[in-house]
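Hi C.,

You asked whether I'd gotten around to modeling the 426-residue construct. I have! Everything is below, sequence then structure, no commentary in between.
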Amino acid sequence: MNRSRVLFDHTTKGLPYGAPVTPAQIALKGWNVLRGDMPLPLVVLRESALAHNLREMALWCAENGLLLAPHGKTTMSPELFARQIEHGAWAITVANVHQAGVCARFGVNRVMIANQVVDAANLRGLAALINDYPELEIYTLADSVAGVGILAGGLRRAGASRSVRLLIEWGKSGWRTGVRSLAAGVDVCREALRNPDVLSVAGIEAFEGLASSPEGVDAAAGQVDEFFADLRAFGRELRAGISSATQNEAPILSIGSSAFLDCVLRLASAAKDDYRIVLRSGSYITHDHGFYERHQAAGITRGASRVPELRPALELWAVVQSAPEPGHALLNFGKRDSSYDLGLPLPLFVLPEGGDLSRAQRLPASRIIGLNDQHAHLAPAEGETVRVGDLVCCGLSHPCTVFDKWRVIPVVDDDYNVIDLYETCF
């Protein structure tokens, strides 16, 4: 990736009006978010938090004998992919063939498509990736005999020159994809083994991230433990058939593992003699101030095993553009700029534009109470004053639905100097 040739200008959201800039040049501009050099609203990445999270997750996986295939669909950022691989990531996970193509284009040599490919155009694209990138190793999923047949037939018709590595997906009633019984899983595995020219059975896969309970995150963790116990039984049932395909290579057991990392360790301990455990954590690299922060705190409190202590790297900066009545202020961002599916943004602090961080006022009790397309409704708490023209820094929940709203995201140091620019490829 030649970062000195990719030009961005003011037609890209978040960049100031003026001459085009490349990621390689941006640090030379001397831009600073607090000084008013960048148009607001603006999502930024804190470099210190990114670096911490990359190190912490790599260390934790190494300590516990786990492979990491981070979910690239969280960020779709080639720069972040490269940093994850530099920190020992075994693969990059994606959700579809388009995203796999982005990974291949930017030099990722092992890609896991944690989804099922069953339509003709995507199957042609998958075969083309296999043929165009001889060093590319691709994994994908199946949860039905019909799906295996479509996958194998499509790859064969498209002239795939090598096999795709297949993971049999385990599921749970009411959740998402995945076989619902041991017998169904055995049938899928047998059908896949009948197509060795285009499919190589490599292991099993599951996604536990839909676990939730009105009783809270600890009750949801109990659901995950039950789900993993069923997954473990599934793995024992399929072990012999999978081993016949993987031969000298230990098969894979892959799980999502962003929110319930203590549960992951219990599963890994039980299954490590039979499978290589591959985690697909995506949100760890940025963490957040909401959904994942609550789950991390709960995992630490449960205290059965050490979980990575991650730091929020994503922030959204906005300006107070209106304060039309007491107890109501409007910020200049909205649904087009921020995630809102797993919680609204959280006001962190406010300061005058041009002020330094020593003048920041924390906003522990103020809340964003609603979002429109381009407006955020802020309810300042008593004693927490915001004025028209003030800058407000907000934390975010669920990074997956932040990155897709920004073509580029500035990387900042702890003084909010812009030191890099990371592209997204959605």
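If it helps when you're writing up: The chain is about 30% helix and 20% strand.

Thanks,
B.
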